[in-house]
Predict the 3D structure of the following.
Amino acid sequence: MKNQRDKKPAPRPGGRSSRVKDAVFGAVETLMAENPAAIPSIGEVAARAGVNPTSLYRRWGDASVLATEVAIERLTTEFPMPDTGTLRGDLLGWATNAIRRSLKGKKNLALLRILATTVQGDDAARAGRLNAIMRRGQELQALLERAKARGEPTPYMSDVLEIVLAPIYLRALFFTPMDDAGDVTRLVDRLLAIAPKQPMEKKKPRK
Amino acid sequence: MKNQRDKKPAPRPGGRSSRVKDAVFGAVETLMAENPAAIPSIGEVAARAGVNPTSLYRRWGDASVLATEVAIERLTTEFPMPDTGTLRGDLLGWATNAIRRSLKGKKNLALLRILATTVQGDDAARAGRLNAIMRRGQELQALLERAKARGEPTPYMSDVLEIVLAPIYLRALFFTPMDDAGDVTRLVDRLLAIAPKQPMEKKKPRK
């Protein structure tokens, strides 16, 4: 049974655990490059990485959780959060990155597709995926906290996702990707128009 | 080569062409029910429907175009556009339908997934898919035209998609589907708040 996903991943001290992770993540990326349409199974990844599948099941539980962790790590590495000194500048940079990674490049679109296509798992797999995605969410939250600390009107993260990110992904997944700076500016300004003028007291509850 | 997608589908007079279409659409639905994770290939559909694959290539060109046409037809049949007499009522009904079809039910999520996962095709396939999706768009446009004819402030269709539909799909594809009436009301009212108070003169150009 693959039901140990509630366990936090072990810390990665750069030792054996870290070497296993590098081999496994590399295997996922190679397999996805060979066949971008499919999430590789735990068995395929284990064989390619030369690792016992049991330890993969124990650590990631599910192929979709593993693929999501790889995708989020790639996002974090290749599209770091901007830090321009103003909220508008940061949001424009972040939204432009979101469009870039939704553009036609096979690798980029595969990344978006991993995030979007693996939701069919059970509840534990969903929780594992959400956990990985939330790591990226925490980086976005930190971007918003910096704006708040500067005294800028700061939107709620849920509104950032709904008003800026959602239209970018809708266009990329269902139509053709947005590609011009005008769209980004329009979405970011629509968001900033409803940003609370006072600094946030606390995070808006969001279920 | 499968490059005749620019041709309009033949009219469907209820004759041979219509019988072929029924058999083909039925085969797509059966195959998707058997394996919701994959878009069935033209070859698989032809074999299941007992139809020559050549005629399928000629008419639909690409498996993703065919699957999209099936998905849009199912949308139109199972989630007809509401006509409540007010724009707000219509939009609330339409958005509630969008959430319903993104809920966990295998068939519903498969439908959303067809629409989202088949964009990897070439430009001609993209055009064919867009053409199918735009038929649904025309129904939404008609809903907006009715509101305009009643003299109500009427949003642009692009804003309806960005402000109401995009967040619903983002939640369904990346997180967990929205499920409460509160979300629908919040999104629809956010849209109506920016609806032009004067009747639209003409459709906003949108590339």
